[in-house]
Here is the input.
Amino acid sequence: MIKAIIIDDEPLARTIVREYLLDYPQVDIAEECNDGFEGVKAIMQHQPDLIFLDIQMPKINGFEMLELVEKPPAVIFTTAFDEYAIRAFETHAVDYLLKPFSKERFDRAMQKWLEKSAGDRLPAEEASLIQVITEAALPNNRIVVKDNSRIRIIPLHDILYFEAADDYVKIHTADAWHLKNKTMQYFEKLLDSKQFVRTHRSYIVNVQFITRLEPHEKESYLAILNKGQRIPVSKTGYVKLKQVLGL
Amino acid sequence: MQALPNTIIYKGRNKIYFIAFWLIWSIIHVWVLQEWKYTAEEAWTDSCVSNALLAAISVVIIISMHYYLPRKEQLTYFSLMCLGAAGIWITLTRFILSYIVPDGILNAFTQSIPVRIAIAILILGCIILINVLLYAQEEQKEQERRKNESDSIARDAELYKLRQQLQPHFLFNSLNSISALVVARPAEARKMIQQLSDYLRSTLKKEEYKWVSLEEELEYLRLYLDIEKVRFGHRLSTVLRQDEKALPLKLPALLLQPIVENAIKFGLYDTTENITISVESEMQGNMLVIQVRNPFDPDVSKPVKGTGFGLNSVQKRLFLLFARNDLLTTDIRENIFITQVKIPQ
Here is the structure.
């Protein structure tokens, strides 16, 4: 049996996928979800082989949801997303269905996936593609993290700084920190360089919280944040910081 | 002389001022000469000849400035022009006068050449200065006009872009709903096609900057909300409440649309619970007051107090129409976002 989950905030849109799946008796719909939060829970609970995923959904979008799943299952996107994101899909091999889609188009997507030995986890090549799209289509004002089983949406303007921590990045807010399984380069590229400056190999700082800069050791500095945190600033970091702050 | 109608001196009342100046100046000229040692007849001859020539030369200067206005080194150019013109003028005047006035008077004329040249330079200088100023003013006006024009084009483009952001999504998702309904509930599918067609038709028909009645605008919003109800009927309810008296009142076309789209975006697309979106209209004094309420998810979107979410374009439009910034207000009560718009009647 192939386990599938449909994640879409519109019941009628889920109806279509369900109806089209009637021709695939080997596919069992384990659950239907209304939003990304439900989606993450359902994926962890059912460990599906395949998900049908909408992109625009309440709370967190489809890409953000995928980020929270450690080993994402195979994904067929069902979306009315705009052209530019679709082009990103097309240049790579992940399948997507553009709403409204026909039964033939749906069958082709299913065929493609079934041929890739049903039940396999997402092939590496496609996993990297999801990464690419995610960076292009993430909302640019927030970051979604998962603390144990709780999903949190952190507005960027609440983030004081990012700190490298082995395979993770520690995201510090005024009263807590959260871990995210990403690299410093990932955040450096994602974030607006006028607001977030990579001051050090292991630190990215939100400049709006910097209250002063102090010389530290030879050719290095410390950025003091408004709650007293002391963030290392390297020589190159200092040059970047000076530029952004207009010193 | 064909060029004259295009010069600045010809515009509006400028030509009257120009002629009046020369008449007054000629009379002053006569008076001064009579006080000195001229008879009335001699003074009039002198004044007419020299001032007619000077006026002709200034017209030539004005026309030349119409064709060539130096950007750089204006001062040098105009000073040389002044001196040259004054020199030509005094030579010509003396030449003509030598045929018509007695020798004594011609001697007196020769004596007074320095004063005459000084006065001529002063007058020509003033004329050049006035011309330069008028041209600068004209250019500034032209620049302003161009700026206004480009602003309005940018504004139109911006509005168009804003509308385009939401429309295709709305359209394709609606078509997807129809696609789902066709098999299971064909009658509803047909109804939805009808609604969508009506909605699209009125969108195409609408023109920005036209005024419509509240009744018309509410009908349009009702269509839009009904379509959203097909997609999200399981959790969307809408309330449209209005004063009978307010229905015939007028408002700019498509002004409410972005406000309601905004309410849908934050109240419906970004939430998961059952929600109600309400549009209430009434007449307060000489104002049409419309209030749109929608819930929002404080975890996802933190509305900024003041301008609200994406309501800047509405604010801008109201300012352009009424030159007031207080017509659009937003308020937050618990997790309800309230947008209020007032339209002066």
In short: The mean pLDDT of chain A is 83. Chain A touches chain B through 21 residues (CB under 8 Å). Residues 124-137 of chain A form the longest helix (14 residues). The two ends of chain A are 64 Å apart (CA to CA).
